[in-house]
Amino acid sequence: MTQTLEPEVTTPASDTAATELLTPQERIDAWLARFSAALEAGDVEGATAMFSADGYWRDLVAFTWNLKTAEGHDEIAAMLTERLADTAPSNWGTTEPATATDDVAEAFIALETSVGRCEGHLRIKPGPDGTDQGWTLLTTLQELKGHEEPNGFGRPLGAVHGSAPDQRSWAQRRDDEELELGRAVQPYVLVIGGGQGGIALGARLRQLGVPSLVVDKHDRPGDQWRKRYKSLCLHDPVWYDHLPYLPFPSNWPVFAPKDKIGDWLEFYTKVMEVPYWSRTECTSASYDEASGRWTVHVVRDGEELTLHPTQLVLATGMSGKANVPTFPGQDVFAGEQHHSSRHPGPDGYAGKKVVVIGANNSAHDICKALVENGVDTTMVQRSSTHIVKSDSLMEIGLGALYSEQAVADGMTTKKADLTFASLPYRIMHQFQIPLYDQIRERDKDFYDRLEAAGFDLDFGDDDSGLFMKYLRRGSGYYIDVGACDLVADGTIKLAKGGVDHLTEDSVVLSDGTELPADVVVYATGYGSMNGWAADLMGQEVADRVGKVWGLGSETTKDPGPWEGEQRNMWKPTQQPGLWFHGGNLHQSRHYSLYLALQLKARFEGLDTPVYGLQEVHHLS
Q1: Tally of CA atoms within 13 A in the half-sphere of 53 that contains its CB
Q2: Cα–Cα nearest to 240, from 228, 252, 258
Q3: What DSSP assignment string belongs to 93-127?
Q4: Is 327 a residue whose pLDDT tops 60?
Q5: pLDDT of residue 230
Q6: Residue closest to 455 by CA, chosen among 510, 482, 481, 492
Q7: Is the separation of the CB atoms in 401 and 411 below 8 Å?
Q8: SS3 string of 242-274?
Q9: Which InterPro entries does the record match to this protein (predicted)?
Q10: How far is CA 436 from the centre of its chain?
């Protein structure tokens, strides 16, 4: 995931020699000086010409009030033409010494705009004439001038000293705030969904002073994890999964069990003072164009309440509603049927035959727990699956940015996030393919055993592996933590093909194979997040927003045209006042900053002209 792909650059020997006389820092400084001068002069043509023909500028809110990648000269020039004067960038510079690999020099950078302080990343490479050209530029808004978070030298005092007008204790102020919120005081932002995404965003909004409320239907923060099957653990390592402000302790497990994550989220919610209503279900929401506010009906602990936020965030994860397929005979099946999201774990299934429809992450986890508890289990693989071993992913895919060694080498979480964000989605697959070539060679015997057992493998449509599958479609993969050995040796029985129908006591596949079953688990994934919008706001709003997630890569389950960024995630949508937030822990941490800053700017009444608002090409 983190390998640096070096471009093939052919330059005249004399020009290359001239470039080699400069240090990486001198090359970066020279490019930034020329670029900054062109921008300050309003010279869009000159600034654009400083990029290579295959150059990319990825902007996260700093210039565009959007998440937008400009690809090539025409798109960079168009963005600058519309946004340069208003943004007024200045004070470009590096934040630490530049480095170089072969001909590519790179550095973390900082700059200011008319309203904010920004950070980013720059890569340059010699052009045909030997002059350095911009290859990838990342600019990200980090804070709004005059609206900084109260930290460091600006942290709050906490104690009440002297004859302050408000003599209430901290606990009294918190109690009063909780009593008023949603009644006498309306939240500016209502976040629906109190899992990792909603909690991370709630913490950011709290620190930025934006009146907000996170609501969730579960009894306690973290129940989204506690109530899943008991063997569930994170498949991503701890260094990848920190939440904002409070990283996991240094003795935290590499792969945290679900209940430990649940407890951490509950603790985090309390210590970060996230305004949070548990046991609260939203029943409907409607938007008033004239007032620019939402009317949201909720039921909190049996009490019906009406809220009027200005901004509404759906933070229901990266997935939408559970996708439960419809098969003939489901109404006559005499046993138990449920989606993987409702799977209770292996307890209670001793002596029964379980058929799991699906062969991705949840299916493998569920099957592994079942057979390890002596349950007769069959996995039904309907299409090929990408498999990567956990240790291979950690060492080859994540190690350079998210590992104990990376931390020891000075790679902070923030620098890792900026480095990863600096790779434009258009070329990210090129960075991934060499990693998975290494993994396939390293784990050849492992893959051979799986294929010998009849398991259908893939590495993505273009062999770019796990992360691109995740970004493009959010499905079709499994990070192996032991289940694959059980498939290879037959402990987990494997069946292949589509489901034709169910009988009273079996699942019948399209080729006529009959699988005896007392329990059927549908590990069949989830729909688009706009399904939640349809439930709460109606199909018209859901269609106005369109499909959520995916890049438009024209690969399996990710239809084109090319979007350049994740559809509708963490940025303005075609429905005013409606936002989507979620993803894995890494994305919830990193992108919550940019969403929070967009919401803060609107709360403070700043002008936020959105450049490149995403068009709708697919409804679901």
Answers
A1: 3
A2: 252
A3: EESS--EEETTEEEEEEEEE-SSEEEEEEEEEEE-
A4: yes
A5: 77
A6: 492
A7: yes
A8: CCCCCCCCCCCCCCCEHHHHHHHHHHHHHHCCC
A9: Auxin_biosynth/cation_transpt (IPR050982), FAD/NAD-bd_sf (IPR036188), NTF2-like_dom_sf (IPR032710)
A10: 21
